[in-house]
Fold these 2 entries.
Entry 1:
Amino acid sequence: MELYDLKGKKALVTGGTKGIGNAIANELAAAGATVIISARTAPENTPHHFIAADLTNAAQVAALAQQITESFGGIDILINNVGGLTTPGGGHGSLTDAHWEQELDLNLISAIRLDRALLPQMIEQNSGVVIHISSVAGKQALWNLNMAYAVSKAALNSYSKALSTELAEKGIRVLTVAPGATKTEPMVKFLNDFSASAGITPEEGMKQLMAQTGGIPMGRMAEPEEVAQLVHFLVSPSAAYLTGTIYAIDGGSLPVVS
């Protein structure tokens, strides 16, 4: 469909070698975009242009931005997908200063750092789309499981909204996509670790987690490709009047009007 065509567009997808990031990279490439992916470690093989970078390292972010400028002349689409739950559960008493700093650096500061490096070129061309991949945890924290992660994603939501307001008159759209439970390797590992610590099966662990969040009305986790399809729409010309909004893709799990 022409309104979803991304031919001639250049996109950077961070964390683009696995899970949601890989699905987004494949989706945008199928729509005609030139796709660059970044991660700390190179994949065994990929059809996309790969640049190694640790986005928690300011020098590596600067090098990534420079290489993109030199090799591609900039980008039109930035998907800030890097992030993850890296801190222990157990509530506030289990989290040290280092835990908080680690989670905020990975899930918030890395996006801010990369935006700052790449936005000047978008501003100069008076066009571009920035997508921040957040999480429904940013609206529904589970104190015993993901407190620091949820806080970091809530901060990302707020930053994304503020940035969208600043950049709207400069021709740049900024949007946030907040997946719920999605069938990725990190999610499977989280479920297995949670279940092992509780002495239950992964199936029972999933039931317990869903009980805490109110369940998933659609009865299953999302596939990474379903998140990618939403991102594709949001970066396409069909979404030209959309900016500043958070889009939850969670099978109806958030128990509030948002």
Entry 2:
Amino acid sequence: MCPPEHFTVEYVINPWMDTSTPVDVELALKQWERLRETLVDLGHTVHVLPPRAGLPDMVFAANGGFVVDGTVYGARFKYPQRAAEAAAHREFYEAQGWTYVAPSEVNEGEGDFAYLPDAYGGTILAGYGFRTEPAAHAQAQDVLGRPAVSLRLVDPRFYHLDTALAALDDRTVTYFPGAFSPASQRVLRQLFPDAVLADEADALAFGLNLVGDGRHVVLNDEASGMAARVAAAGYVPVPVELSELKKGGGSVKCCVAELRH
């Protein structure tokens, strides 16, 4: 995770951003810290990446890479405003001794990649349509040695896969069908017939931008409908307030890069 010390909305690269809406940095920091504390209280180890001035979106740490079994497929951001973030993430991973593979294709890390280790022997779900290029899916597959399933996003409000789909545990997903093309919806139905289906209200509340550990589901507190759905499916919802970071187009999952050993 990376604290939002420099967080602001000074440019527009997704439909949620509005430069005329002020950001309360102090509140953003308090909300971020509460999310960090929540993860620690649930038993997780949280590493903190130092923020850098001039990179206001660095708080969305999930976009800096995609990790499977100790190997990191690095990020290459679509927009120049975020390009320098990739180097900061690379320095972190290499300092920690992770195997880092620099990408040649545009991709935004876990923003457009999800991993389910127990689904079909280990499966990468890979989004495209707005940020990550489809060629990056093949590259991630080669680097990480896991099959990648390409899913086309068609609604610009859900510009990253992690705004429309999430792993609840190692084999179960939740997703909003309307964010995907008809063909991708068919693929998801075939692969995950027991998925927890979300509706548009859940997705617009960033309810799918969540972190699940197999039992707990940490999600935006505005997504009360989504909390009820995951509870009905047998998980324990853990709501957190992230109203300030939502102004940048992100929520819980955007703030968390998962380190899979």
